[in-house]
């Protein structure tokens, strides 16, 4: 029963009133983040399941999985509940509010998951098998993003895999505008008002900085990854798999 209570999603109303600051992963966001993701990111649940299935296809004892920006640990908890082999699951996040909520959930479900409050830009990656970053890199400043992806590459074992999802932009400005309009229509269908959509867009200005698909692939190649593929795309949301 306790697990159900912790897993219950509070409704996202963060941007229903005037914003006073730029977007950040504070207590207000952490408390509604699961609802925010499911209503703001198209096919988020399906993408999470796709990545988990990809990991489970080659699961084995002792395999090390690291989630960058674990937020409320939903991805790690889902993976933990479905794996048969005893893999080592760990998450990094730099938000104390997210860490607190994630620890509560892991404790409630009795999940053996290691969570650490850390800055991924300075973290010492230690020969991971798989590193996952779902909608995380886009919040890293572009000049630092390349260096982080290089660190991720170097922190993977040989034949290691980096799986990441990102919001993207398009070189074709007309197409980019069309995709944004389609995305905002999607958010309205999820119950967000035009005011909330505008408020969040303003809060994310210069905080979430997306690359094109080509820029993300180029970044991975420059970091040393030998093969990069896209395994999912809906409008301006894409999931990549980069192999060392």
From TrEMBL:
Protein name: Carboxy-S-adenosyl-L-methionine synthase
Keywords attached to this entry: S-adenosyl-L-methionine, Transferase
Entry keyword Iron: no
Residues making up the signal peptide according to the UniProt record: none
Stated role: Catalyzes the conversion of S-adenosyl-L-methionine (SAM) to carboxy-S-adenosyl-L-methionine (Cx-SAM).
PANTHER family: CARBOXY-S-ADENOSYL-L-METHIONINE SYNTHASE, TRANS-ACONITATE 2-METHYLTRANSFERASE-RELATED
Catalysed reactions listed for this entry: prephenate + S-adenosyl-L-methionine = carboxy-S-adenosyl-L-methionine + 3-phenylpyruvate + H2O
Keyword Transferase: yes
Encoding gene per record: cmoA
Residues binding S-adenosyl-L-methionine, per UniProt: 44, 69-71, 93-94, 134, 201
Classification via CDD domains: AdoMet_MTases (cd02440)
Broad enzyme group: transferase
InterPro entries: CmoA, Methyltransf_25, SAM-dependent_MTases_sf
Domain Methyltransferase: 65-160
EC number(s) stated in the UniProt entry for this protein: 2.1.3.-
Superkingdom in the source lineage: Bacteria
GO molecular function: carboxyl- or carbamoyltransferase activity; S-adenosyl-L-methionine binding
GO annotation, biological process: tRNA wobble uridine modification
Family (UniProt): Belongs to the class I-like SAM-binding methyltransferase superfamily. Cx-SAM synthase family.
SUPFAM superfamilies from the UniProt entry: S-adenosyl-L-methionine-dependent methyltransferases
């Amino acid at each position: 029963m306790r697990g159900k209570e912790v897993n219950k999603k509070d409704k996202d109303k963060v941007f229903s009133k005037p914003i006073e600051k730029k977007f950040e992963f504070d207590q207000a966001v952490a408390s509604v983040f699961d609802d925010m993701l499911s209503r703001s990111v198209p096919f988020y649940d399906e993408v999470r399941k796709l990545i988990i299935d990809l990991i489970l296809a080659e699961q084995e004892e002792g395999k090390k999985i690291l989630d960058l920006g674990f937020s409320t640990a939903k991805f790690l908890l889902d993976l933990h509940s479905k794996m048969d082999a005893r893999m080592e699951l760990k998450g990094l996040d730099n938000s104390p509010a997210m860490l607190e909520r994630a620890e509560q959930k892991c404790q409630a479900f009795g999940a053996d998951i290691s969570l650490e409050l850390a800055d991924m830009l300075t973290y010492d990656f230690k020969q991971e098998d798989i590193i996952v970053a779902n909608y995380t890199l886009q919040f890293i400043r572009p000049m630092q993003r390349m260096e982080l992806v290089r660190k991720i590459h170097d922190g993977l074992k040989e034949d290691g895999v980096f799986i990441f999802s990102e919001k993207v932009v398009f070189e074709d400005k007309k197409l980019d505008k069309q995709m944004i309009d389609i995305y905002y229509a999607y958010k309205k269908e999820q119950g967000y008002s035009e005011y909330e959509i505008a408020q969040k867009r303003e809060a994310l200005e210069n905080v979430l900085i997306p690359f094109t698909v080509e820029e993300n692939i180029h970044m991975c190649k420059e970091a040393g990854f030998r093969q990069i593929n896209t395994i999912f795309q809906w409008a301006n949301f894409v999931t990549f798999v980069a192999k060392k």
